[in-house]
Design a protein that fits this description.
It is built from no helices and 16 strands. The chain has strands at about 1-5, 10-15, 20-30, 35-45, 50-55, 60-65, 65-75, 80-85, 90-95, 110-115, 120-125, 130-135, 150-155, 160-165, 170-175, 180-185. The strands form 3 sheets. The chain has a 6-stranded antiparallel β-sheet with strand order 1-6-2-3-4-5, with no helix packed on it. A 5-stranded antiparallel β-sheet has the order 9-8-7-10-11, with no helix packed on it.
């Protein structure tokens, strides 16, 4: 067990049975009261932010988390098979760790996976992915009065809104965190 003095921004702790990452960490000594640590943390299971106060010197469970860059190979049931590019070792990562960003995943992309004693606890796809538009309606000619958006289906089945000038076969950049169109890729 570690104490509050051993925790820094970016540390991983076990709090109320969940794994959390410290986002903000401040030591405070208000007036004639005892010192305490004020922390803001992100729950890795559901992504919610939480704040909590700890007494100075209080013990807490600090986790050792290793983050690996793995290449996504293919899906097998509820797991993704990912490969370590240096040792060529294959690891099974639950697809649910990627959440909504799973719809933007394509084979051979490099993802970040956090392991706590060889058990995957969180996974992140790349911030930006490039995907091909497989279906979209044709734009109405002359409708350029404002920023006109239309629905488009991407390779992999994800649906996003794209500008009217995007056609089938166009490769677009998408932000995986928000699911929004960024721009089109010029070749």
């Amino acid at each position: 067990m570690a104490s509050t003095a051993d925790v820094n921004i970016g540390s991983y702790i076990r709090f109320n049975g969940d794994i959390c990452q410290i986002m903000e960490w401040q030591h405070r000594t208000p007036g004639n009261l005892r010192a305490f640590y004020q922390g803001k943390m992100r729950n890795l299971r559901n992504g919610k932010l939480n704040e909590h106060r700890w007494r100075s010197g209080e013990t807490m469970e600090v986790l050792r988390v290793e983050i690996h860059e793995l290449q996504y190979l293919y899906r097998e049931g509820d797991n993704l098979v990912c490969m370590d590019q240096s040792s060529f070792e294959q690891k099974y990562v639950p697809a649910e760790l990627f959440g909504d960003a799973m719809r933007f995943m394509k084979e051979e992309m490099v993802v970040q996976v956090g392991f706590e004693s060889e058990v995957p606890i969180f996974a992140r796809p790349p911030k930006v992915v490039e995907l091909e538009v497989t279906y979209t309606e044709h734009a109405v000619k002359g409708d350029t009065s404002n920023k006109v958006m239309k629905a488009a289906t991407l390779a992999g089945g994800a649906e996003i809104s794209v500008p009217s000038f995007v056609d089938i076969g166009t490769i677009v950049r998408v932000d995986t965190e928000t699911g929004e169109y960024m721009d089109r890729v010029k070749k």
